[in-house]
Amino acid sequence: MTVRVGLVQLDCSTSESVAHRVTRTLELIDKVAPDVDLLVLPELWHVGAFDVDAARQHAQAIDGPLVSSMGALAAEHKIWLHGGSFCELADDGRHYNTSVLFAPDGSLVVSYRKIHLFGFDGGETVLMSGGDELVVVDTPLGPTGLATCYDMRFPELFRALTEGGATAVLLTSGWPSLRIEHWDVLTRARAIENQTWFIACNEVGTQFEMVLGGHSTVVDPRGDVVAIAGTEAEVLIVEVDPQAPAAWRAKFPVLDDIRLS
Prior knowledge:
Blueprint: E1 3-9, H1 18-32, E2 38-40, H2 52-57, H3 65-77, E3 80-89, E4 95-102, E5 108-113, E6 136-139, E7 142-148, H4 155-163, E8 168-172, H5 180-194, E9 197-201, E10 204-207, E11 210-213, E12 217-219, E13 225-228, E14 234-240, H6 244-251
Parallel strand pairs: 1-2, 2-3, 7-8, 8-9
Antiparallel strand pairs: 1-14, 3-4, 4-5, 6-7, 9-12, 10-11, 12-13
Helix pairs in contact: 1-3
């Protein structure tokens, strides 16, 4: 039985207020939810992935209004909802780039604090602390790993998720058009290397002088691109077969030949 996965490729331009974008996005979730089993949002969509000042200003606790609102929508529509990531203000005062996954009853099943922070001593490294825990959780896709944007450049993370049982990966992102060719290659590479579904949701729009690249994509365990979005805002809906990784791994058992880890 296939799973209907929706990728919400949002326009996260800084010309739009955070309050308006949150309202607009929650309304969009409400509209799209009846057509999917699992919905995925981009990275830091509420503030824009490259707006550190807005992230600081609009940081919230894990039980704050933004996360609570998404949980309520998941429960209302009885869907799995990957709420992208948001700027989490932890109890100890630290900030994290935290992605959240809700079950159809609205419960927060798991959260993942981004491990690899982007910026080379600038950008999100100025504000955020890096997480230190990998996440693999059961979803309708099977055991599912979570990752965020810059994580994709570190293949050891995805091999560790695979070793943890993952047969699918959900990646939330704010990847710029400047390096979108890397995105197109790496999304396929991570799927090929680990024989997993690779489901990656990016954003679009302009944040200051940075143009976001879109190309939200679903790649199957063989590395074939099942669907890919363009460079404008859209919702991509794809049928995903949770049994495909096991079938391909049985036919081409490359993971059995791993010698270094």
